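Example 3.2
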Amino acid sequence: MNKKKQDHGANPIDARDTNQYQGEYVASLVEKWDELIDWEARAKSEGEFFIQTLKDRGVKRVLDVATGTGFHSVQLKKAGFNVVSADGNPNMLAKAFENGRKQGVTLQVVQTDWRWLSRDITNRFDAIICLGNSFTHLFTEKDRRKALAEFYSVLNEDGILMLDQRNYDNILDNGFSTKHTFYYCGDGVKAEPEHIDEGLTRFRYEFNDKSVYHLNMFPLRKAYVHRLMREVGFQELTSYGDFLETYPDEDHPDFFIHLADKKYVADAQQFIKVPKENADEKGK
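Structure, written as tokens:
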């Protein structure tokens, strides 16, 4: 693995480029990533949400486009799904394959950039999962639209996209807070933003050995993500807050999980499911 250190340049908050992630997920951070995630705690907190949601829709073939260190790919493989594990970062893929072997699972891994996904992935899938707040690494609307269009293109005609993100609406409007209930369950690991503006959240990660890393991410507002998904062609949209379909805004869930159906619906607008408190977003 590459041993180089992170480098965000002379002014880190100016590092707002989609390709930046390649220099962020250096080998030393990837080696520590599972301390941040804590597989056992995360498996307990998520329960059967992703597995059961996919099974309920008759999904068999899954493309995990943000494999990371392999947590969801391994869980889905163990649950009987046919999974292809993709990521843009070779360090992550190497760690995912290693983690899979430790779990008695052999992952089929592919290195690819989402913007050119269909160039490297020629098969079609019943579902795509893009989890771990990964979509936030895209810094331009052009890149976000291209990635969503690529996801759309490799799905079967009745396929589904499952994409999660931090609750950046709350971070931008009210400042950072977290319940640490479902995500990033590692003991003693601190993950907090040290800079927030409408175009960047710069997160600082401090591990038990006092090592510090940073990730620069674009703060996606939920209504904006809904709009992009609809405009790319996804039909029925359902959003969950920390795994709950109905949640009051004042609870400020840590994460949103968006389910976007490709299947054609004659009047798709009526099928956009948002909590009553957020009904005004349908027109945005």
